[in-house]
Amino acid sequence: MDFVKMLKEFDCDCGKRHNCAIRHIHIGKGALQELPGTVKNYSDILLVADPNTYGVCGEAVEELLGEKRYETLILVRDGVLIPNEQAIAEVEAKLTDKTDLIVGVGSGVIQDLCKYVSFYHKLPYAIVCTAPSMDGYAGAGAAMITDNMKITYSCHVPETIIGDVDVLKTAPMDMIRAGYGDILGKYSCLNDWKLSAVVRGEDFCQYVYDLIYDMLLQTKDLGEKLQQRDEEAIITLMEAIIGVGIAMAYVGSSRPASGSEHHLSHYFEITGILNDEPYFAHGTDVVYSTVYTQMLREQLLALEAPTPKGGHDAAEWEAKIRAIYTEAAEGVLAQQDKMGWYREDRAPIYAAKWDEIRKTLAEVPSCEVLKDYIASVGLDIKEFTELYSAEKIENALWYAKDLKDRYSVLWLYYDLMR
Known about the structure:
- By secondary structure, the chain is α/β, with parallel strands linked by helices.
- The chain has two domains: about 5-170, Rossmann fold (3-Layer(aba) Sandwich); about 180-415, Up-down Bundle (Dehydroquinate synthase-like, alpha domain).
- It has helices at about 5, 35-40, 50-65, 85-95, 110-120, 165-170, 175-185, 185-200, 205-220, 225, 230-250, 260-275, 280-300, 315-325, 330-340, 345-360, 365-375, 380-385, 390-400, 410-415; strands spanning about 10, 15-20, 25-30, 45-50, 70-75, 100-105, 125-130, 140-145, 150-155, 160-165.
């Protein structure tokens, strides 16, 4: 993938000027050796890792940074490391007035923490990737859990991304599968983006859509090779992951890469944390949820005409939100009150644009095709129903949409099928 070309600023047919401020991207064999050259202008570097990622290549990174590294923070937890207020405070406590760069060694949580803290302290950061597990490396958004809410903060992109295939191919297979799942989920989120452009007139960029879709097509058939830890397949997956992040930077949000399937994933993560219940890795939840959002599209496509269900029961809905989201409920309620979408009548739009809506919904591969892709990488949709009860999945389909301020198939399903 030609990252040099992708990082150049350009005018797009959508009317906007796209750019991505990342300076260095090194993906491939021996990429780790490029790190010293990318940090040559810094002198007081804070290295952030967790015990697992430090064990993978943290010591090698320390050696490469040499005397430029002034301290290493290893975030230790009995369970899962969560990018919350506690973790933020731990990173901030290690900053000094001389700190001029944060280097993260890890994947999702580590890069979100480094991105968030560096942005609010006006510092650059770099990420040494330890797994091809999710598409947030190159994006400007930091997916944090604050006030018990999953919130994506608009921050900044990393200055440097390093992905050495000798490190990436040794990642736990669950993380490789999660990265594949995150990319396969683009079938759903791209469709949601186009659907929102049809229904709500949301800004839409065909160039960005096509860019991400092309990376999806390059990745979708790699399941078996990824299970074999084939180096070329790992590189292709990692390049797609980085490319999607650059595309997000082009539009200034995660919209092209996060739709209904991510809303479901966030639902399972948030309720899992609140109730101390297990949940899958992000990308794994995303790909399983992609199958379920496609089930909704197929149900909607079976309708001859849109017949919105009236009479939103605000009291009943609020009671359900409070029961499901407990400590996080106030944030959910406040967000939906601000949006006001429950007070809108979308029936005229659906009636006028039903043919275009149906045409858009029909663009996603069927549930059976998606299940075949999932199986190719060693995942089984049965795991989803075994971990999450039928009631929990049903609640997610109705109430995950309330976590976000984005229109998706979940809103269309609510309007027409409840």
